[in-house]
Specification:
heterodimer, A: mainly beta, Immunoglobulin-like, B: seven-stranded mixed β-sheet, 53% strand
């Protein structure tokens, strides 16, 4: 059973517009969430994180929103740039563990 | 920042041979290393967790004798795919807890092709 889901396998956005990537989870015990970006044939790189005690975290063009009651988080990229084209994974973990569960990823394509 | 160096980045081997993948933490001590496998268009699937000086913990469905993991030092963990078959062809990635809020630091991955 997939505990972390990214229901959109792909997303295309025009350069300069907002990209919104969504992630849903089923385990209410998850308390820390990460977003990673991955280029083909490379390891993922960390983007941004959020703790369950917050509902928003912002870092430059990247903002992550967390809705605990809906068990939903989203990553907003504004403005989107062609270099943002990659696969984005969300990941979640429970308290006291580094064992993250990853979503299936969303491939973002930013069109110039 | 914390860096995990993974080698080789790409390897092609014949069926029946073994392949070793190395992951080194360059500027920190990795007491724990996670090994993932990624199939095309699928998520990162955790295979096993290695701990320095002790036996690795394998996820359900992962063959221990097939995927040998050794974590002999605080900076080196290895995954050996033994008697490789074409179905073992995949992208293998290691990662280590990097502390703070950064979750994992990932290696650059190894693309294994078994012919």
């Amino acid at each position: 059973d997939q505990q972390v889901k990214q229901n959109s396998p792909s997303l295309s956005v025009q350069e300069g517009r907002i990209s919104i990537l969504n992630c849903d989870y089923t385990n209410s015990m998850f308390d820390y969430f990460l977003w990673y970006k991955k280029y083909p044939a490379e390891g993922p790189t960390f983007l941004i994180s959020i703790s369950s005690i917050k509902d928003k975290n912002e870092d430059g063009r990247f903002t992550v929103f967390l809705n605990k009651s809906a068990k939903h988080l989203s990553l907003h990229i504004v403005p989107s740039q062609p270099g943002d084209s990659a696969v984005y994974f969300c990941a979640a973990r429970g308290t006291g563990t580094y064992k993250y569960i990853f979503g299936t990823g969303t491939r973002l394509k930013v069109l110039a | 920042g914390a860096v995990v160096s993974q080698h080789p980045s790409r390897v092609i081997c014949k069926s029946g041979t073994s392949v070793k993948i190395e992951c080194r933490s360059l500027d920190f001590q990795a007491t724990t290393m996670f090994w993932y496998r990624q199939f095309p268009k699928q998520s990162l699937m955790l295979m096993a967790t290695s701990n320095e000086g002790s036996k690795a913990t394998y996820e359900q469905g992962v063959e221990k004798d097939k995927f040998l993991i050794n974590h002999a030092s605080l900076t080196l963990s290895t995954l050996t795919v033994t008697s490789a078959h074409p179905e073992d062809s995949s992208f293998y990635i290691c990662s280590a807890p990097a502390g703070g809020n950064y979750g994992y630091t990932f290696g650059s991955g190894t693309r294994l092709t078994v012919v």
